[in-house]
Amino acid sequence: MRDDDAVFNALADGSRRELLDRLYARDGQTLRELTAGLQMSRQAVSRHLGVLEGAGLVVTRRSGREKFHFLNPVPIQLIHDRWIDKYTERPVTALVDLKTELEQRHDLIDPP
Amino acid sequence: MRDDDAVFNALADGSRRELLDRLYARDGQTLRELTAGLQMSRQAVSRHLGVLEGAGLVVTRRSGREKFHFLNPVPIQLIHDRWIDKYTERPVTALVDLKTELEQRHDLIDPP
DNA sequence: AGAATAGGCAACAAAAATGTTGCCTGTCAA
DNA sequence: TTGACAGGCAACATTTTTGTTGCCTATTCT
Question: Is B75 left (phi over 0), alpha (psi -120 to 50) or beta?
Answer without folding.
Answer: alpha
